[in-house]
Specification:
six-stranded mixed beta sheet, about 25% helix, Ferric Hydroxamate Uptake Protein, Chain A, domain 1, single chain, about 675 residues, alpha/beta, Rossmann fold, 25 strands
């Protein structure tokens, strides 16, 4: 009996252990089943636009190489959904050209999108768009769930991008053609993949219907690498690796049917449906942040050779592509020089990059010497004119390309160009080596020519074959309009003549205060031989030229000269002083300078001011009259240019003169900005 009891106990213990093991195993299985799956990041291609993705918020991985300008981006910080997602991510600085993970969130459409240059990408401006998006680092937010697959909008059905797959729904392509018989390859395409094929039927519009078959068989001819012909009725690319190939075709632009953004042979779409839903890329009016008038002076001399001349033309086409050209942005014209310069086309001939690139391709080489100085003189006198499309308010920029060195002198021609408000850049390719420097006509010609000798306006390229490397740096500098120091402004383009009352009523102490006013006003201008120049006349009964416009070329030298002016003392013949200043001061003013006279007096004139003042106005001298204490208001108004309220000022005390300096400068600049420039 004891044995039976022991056996029963052993059996109970065994059953208990079995139940315990089963319970533990079940618990582990439950734990395993309830474990949260790891999030997988879907990949997208550089050409995928945000508007094609249905998901309102998602994390995605961008590949390398999305900095290419062919991936258009619209806006800054907030981007139009017509933009390349990955291109916008590079522009925003969230990733670089090597790719990476990003977080995309859709937001409402904006009334306008502002283009800008950032991180190697020039985004475009757009008036308005229906939907926007913003980019941030590709990190999951706590409590948020992100899709592992992305849904794409499609004419007939939803296209899903799965994790670790790449899709190329918008890839543009080119056709590769061979004149020799080529092998064929048969490719099996799953029905879930939108297939696009080169049609061999008489009607190239007939789409491949993959909606009713599990797999499709397509026969394409593989093309040997490097064989291309561009004047064909179709554009396509055959890309193959291993046993996979995707081929797509579009009727060429010349047929009149194809537009950017339109895929004619997407799976399941009929031609008439596609034409109804085509999306034409919005035409850009140009980047308003880069509104400049550009003149390229290209080297057509025999020294460059035909091959390098083609490289030069390709460089110009790359520049036109990198610039967001248009009426509200940059415009570009080209002058080719050899023995003599000639205008290939002006600023208003081509207002978009596509037309400009076609025109550049047609330029033929002139030949001759490299007479850069003569070309710069031609540009100064002829290029930047209203008839040639100069817009006045846009800075003028001349970019000179020279192979080696010029065959004439450039210093004087460059000085006149700078004085006309032209910002000169120099690109020197394959410059003179040590044993060639003896052949250079004008040593250090680059520094003598450019707008400023600070490195900003010059590029030294060691080889024509590395010219492409400076495309983006050049565009960035040209579009940085705040640094275009030679552009005409209200502060750098005038000859300013002070006519100073030195009569006995002023007194020595007040005369020092008056000179401080002259110094304060002068400090506001950019002083140099080619910028604003300052001259001064002191008068009593008589007149004295204290210094002329050509005397002092730096601001410090000028301010020191003002301090050294000695008080004269005497009567007050203001009319005679105006006549004297017109002859001895403004008579030596440069023709391309605005002439500003600032007359300061503390009393009524002993002689008539009306005739001299009228002579000043008729000679184009803009006159500002500053009256102090006992100055006659009626005389101040006669002297001042109309409207007198903007050109005549009065203060009760000499110590109050400093108060009118900001208002005078403001009025000078307001008047300047309201007038056509250059």
């Amino acid at each position: 009996m004891g044995i039976a009891v022991l056996a029963m106990k052993a059996s109970v213990i065994e059953m208990f252990l079995v139940l315990l093991l089963i319970g533990t195993s079940g618990s582990k299985e439950v734990t395993k089943k309830s474990k949260k799956p790891k999030f997988s990041v879907p990949q997208i291609n550089c050409d995928v636009k945000a508007g094609k993705i249905i998901n309102p918020e998602f994390i995605a991985k961008c590949p390398a190489g999305c900095q290419d300008p062919k991936y258009h981006v619209y806006g800054t910080d907030i981007y139009a959904s017509y933009s390349s997602v990955c291109g916008a991510a590079v522009h925003s600085g969230v990733i670089d050209n090597s790719g990476g993970k990003i977080l995309v969130r859709k937001v409402a459409g904006q009334s306008g999108y502002k283009g800008s240059y950032s991180n190697g990408i020039r985004s475009l401006s757009l008036p308005r768009w229906r939907e926007s998006f913003i980019i941030s680092e590709g990190k999951q937010k706590r409590g948020m769930t992100y899709p592992s697959t992305l849904e794409y909008s499609s004419p007939r059905s939803s296209v899903v991008a799965k994790t670790d797959e790449t899709t190329k729904p918008y890839q543009k392509s080119e056709i590769l053609v061979s004149t020799t018989p080529l092998p064929t390859m048969t490719i099996r395409v799953p029905a879930t993949t939108p297939a696009e094929a080169v049609s061999t039927s008489p009607n190239p519009w007939t789409p491949l219907d993959t909606t009713t078959m599990s797999t499709s068989t397509i026969t394409v001819r593989l093309q040997p690498a490097g064989h291309r012909i561009r004047d064909m009725g179709f554009r396509s690319t055959a890309a193959y690796a291993g046993n996979r190939s995707i081929t797509r075709a579009h009727p060429a632009r010349e047929t009149g049917f194809w537009k950017p953004g339109l895929a004619l042979l997407d799976a399941g779409a009929r031609p008439n449906e596609e034409l109804k839903m085509k999306s034409v890329e919005p035409a850009s009016k140009g980047d308003p942040n880069c509104k400049v008038d550009l003149s390229f002076l290209i080297d057509g001399s025999w020294s460059i050779g035909k091959r390098r001349f083609r490289i030069q033309k390709q460089f110009l086409k790359d520049i036109s592509q990198a610039l967001d050209m248009g009426p509200a942005g940059p415009l570009l014209g080209i002058v080719q020089y050899g023995n003599d310069p000639s205008m290939e086309f002006n600023l208003k001939t081509h207002v978009d990059s596509k037309d400009l690139k076609a025109a550049i391709e047609k330029i033929s080489q002139k030949g001759g010497l490299s007479n850069v100085g003569r070309a710069l003189s031609f540009v100064t006198k002829n290029f930047f004119s209203n008839a040639n499309g100069n817009r006045g308010g846009a800075p003028n920029v001349a970019i000179v390309m020279v192979d080696g060195w010029p065959t004439d002198k450039v210093e004087e021609a460059s000085r006149l160009a700078r004085e006309s408000g032209i910002n000169i850049f120099f690109i020197t390719i394959e410059g003179a080596v040590e044993n060639e420097k003896q052949n250079v006509i004008e040593p250090n010609f680059v520094n003598k020519a450019v707008c400023r000798q600070n490195g900003f306006y010059s590029f030294n390229v060691p080889s024509w074959f590395s010219l492409h490397k400076i495309v983006q740096p050049l565009v960035k500098r040209v579009c940085d309009t705040n640094r275009l120091a030679c552009s005409k402004t209200c502060l750098n383009s005038a000859d300013v003549g002070f006519v100073i009352d030195g009569s006995s009523s002023v007194g020595t102490g007040n005369f020092r205060t008056l000179l401080q006013f002259v110094a304060n006003l002068s400090k506001e201008f950019e002083i140099s031989d080619t910028d604003t120049r300052i001259g001064a006349v002191q008068y009593t009964y008589e007149q004295r030229l204290e210094f002329g416009f050509d005397k002092y070329g730096t601001k410090q030298d000028l301010l020191n000269a003002i301090k050294r002016v000695n008080y004269w003392s005497g009567g007050t013949s203001t009319g005679a002083a105006i006549s004297y200043a017109l002859e001895h001061l403004f008579g030596k003013s440069k023709t391309n300078k605005r002439k500003l006279m600032v007359l300061i007096t503390d009393g009524r004139s002993y002689d008539d001011v009306r005739v001299p003042a009228m002579a000043a106005h008729q000679n184009g001298v803009i006159t500002y009259s500053i009256g102090i204490a006992w100055a006659a208001q009626d005389e101040l108004e006669v002297i001042a240019t109309h409207p007198t309220k903007d050109h005549s000022f009065f203060v009760d005390e000499f110590d109050d003169l400093y108060k009118v300096v900001p208002k005078i400068i403001q009025n000078i600049c307001t008047e300047f900005n309201s007038q056509p420039r250059n």
